[in-house]
Each structure stands twice: as C-alpha cells, then as structure tokens.
Amino acid sequence: MSAPAIPHHIAIVMDGNGRWATRRFLPRVAGHKQGVESLRRCVRACAVRGVRVLTVFAFSSENWNRPRDEVSGLMDLLAGALAREVPRLSADGVRLHFVGERSGLSERIAAGLAKAEQETAVNERLVLNVCFNYGGRWDIAQAAASLAARGEPLTEANLHGAMALAHVPDPDLVVRTGGEQRLSNFLLWQSAYSELFFSERLWPDFDEAALDEAIAAFARRERRFGQTSAQVADAAGQPDRRQPA
Asked: What is the set of active-site residues?
C-alpha cells in the first residue's frame, strides 16, 4: 500500500478563536492567545509530516473593523509572539514570511516582522507564511499596480509572479476551521485549484488529529486540473480505476 499523499503546501483560515473564548465566558483575546498555542502545534506537526509550506490567515484587512480593544490585544499578542516564538521557530528550521500591507502597521510591529524574517531567512525545513493585514483582493490589486508601475503587460503569468506569495507554489489544500464554509478574501488567486477542507473544530481545538483528518481527505481527492480521470491516470502510469477493465 502506497503512503498517503502529503500536500506540499497547506493554507489555513484559523477561524473560531473568539467563539472559543465566548463559550468559556472569557474575553475574546483569550481565544487568540490559545490560537497561538494551536498554531505552534500545527507548525510542528506539519514539519514532522513533510509539509514544506504552511500559510495561515492571522489578521485580515477587514479585521481592523473589530472592537478597538480586541485589535489592540491582537497587536500586543503579535509583538509578544514574535519575541517568544521566533527563536523557537528558527531552531526548528522554519523560515518566516509575513504577507500583507505593512504601511498601516505601527513602527514597532513592522520592525518586528522584518526582524523575524531576517533571523529565519536561511532556514529550509518549512516555510511559514503569516498573512497579516492581508486580503486576497488587495493582493491582486497590488500585483496589477506593480506591473503597471513597471510598464509590464498584464498577463496571467506576470500577475502570478507579482503576487505576495510568488515565492511559494500555490496551496494544494486550503483548510478553514470553525464550521464556516467560505474563503473570506483569503488567497483568492492562489486557491483556484486548491482542494478545500472545512472543519467544525474551532481553531484553538485544532490538533494533530484534526490536521491528519484534513490530510487524509486530501489524499482521497483526485486532482484533475481540467483533465479527465483517464488522462490523470495515464499521466501517472496507472490504470484508470473509474473505467471497466
């Protein structure tokens, strides 16, 4: 029996932190703190399983509209996590990239992001993309504006190369936790052919078993990219099991 297919690149919408806290009569920021623990667990699990790229949706461009105390708590949480987690991630061979618009961030946060990227730049075990102040529509718009500024034609290939995640392949698997079934402006361009998996678990409860469930579901999918099942089987040198022998 062959080993299950492991996605090269997994992307996750980490949803449900606030609801996790509310159900426990805790402030919403407590859910975000627990979400950091879940992210640490997920990063380690992905590295062990052979996933090479993990992209997570940490803070969307729309999240600025949340209550001021929650946004402030998230900024403080990020600053603390950078100081605490970056040395651990670097020791584990994780390379950090922060993806999103930085012009609206405080000088302290922007400097922390740049420092974390610099300190992990040589690591090769796992690329961790943290989408912070990010939106899929922003990504497409900034790519188009970049091409226009350079006087380059607006082709699909050029646009793809100007995207904020051009340094990694598109995600094979996009996971959303928390029971919602939508992308919420996450990797709109890059997820065109991604397999989607929706988990009922709130993000702070997403553990290794939940990750394995998502990977197992991915392994059962047939990725055709516009081809037929027969063409996919032929390219893989296997019999088409959907057709009579």
From this structure: 15, 63
